């Protein structure tokens, strides 16, 4: 473990992205609950340790030492899949790919958080909270629609969730679950999804400016 102290960036992402999405899921569905402990660690610490493992793997193949937002989102996505924070409440059955769906949307919302951060850097201090709240409530990351597929009959979202689910399997030799998650591939996917969403994001921001001009 390269750093036992939770970073400020991770604390922000955990509180405003990860924990928020977990709360929304459990609040809307009584069959879901969240692990309190993973091994001997509470969930936030366990997830942080796993993210750092993924970051170390990514950094080993980089010329620099700082991960960009897309690699960070990818590492968080992979860590969520491996930690599996969502479980059934009192033994309730939940979809087998529930944590993969969770991982995808947490990754997307990590990208959203950074996109908002970029915008907020350029606005007056007194407007930051108001604009942040507006964008948080009115902009959602979109995925390509089925109409954009060339020959695939399955939604983009389902394809990604399936790929995430198939990235781990039970090894016949060790009889343990093996993870073949590709940090670099999903980093590139998150990059392309940010590019795909830039126009939607800018449109949402401009709609705010029309009603609340920024001087």
Task: Sum this structure up briefly.
By secondary structure, the chain is mainly alpha-helical.
Q: Describe it for me?
A:
This protein has one domain (3-211). It has helices at residues 8-28, 43-59, 69-83, 98-120, 128-138, 156-165, 183-211, and strands spanning 32-34, 37-38, 41-42, 86-88, 168-170, 177-179. It is globular, with a radius of gyration of 18 Å. It has seven helices and six strands. The chain is mainly alpha-helical and 215 residues long. Strand 5 (168-170) and strand 6 (177-179) form a beta hairpin. Strands 1-4 form a two-stranded antiparallel ribbon. A two-stranded antiparallel sheet has the order 2-3. The termini are far apart. Helix content is 59%, strand content 7%.
Descriptive key words:
two-stranded antiparallel sheet, single chain, 215 residues
Strand arrangement across the biggest beta sheet: 1-4
Number of distinct beta strands: 6
Which segments are poorly predicted (pLDDT under 50) over 5 or more consecutive residues?
none
**Biggest sheet details:** 2 strands, antiparallel
Using only C-alpha atoms, the radius of gyration works out to 18 Å
The chain-level structural class is: mainly alpha
**Ends distance:** 47 Å
Q: What is the number of helical segments per DSSP (H or I, 4+ residues)?
A: 7
Give, in order, the helices and strands.
HEEEHHEHHHEEH
Strand content bin: 5-15%
**Structural domain tally:** 1
Share of helical residues: 55-70%
- Global geometry: globular
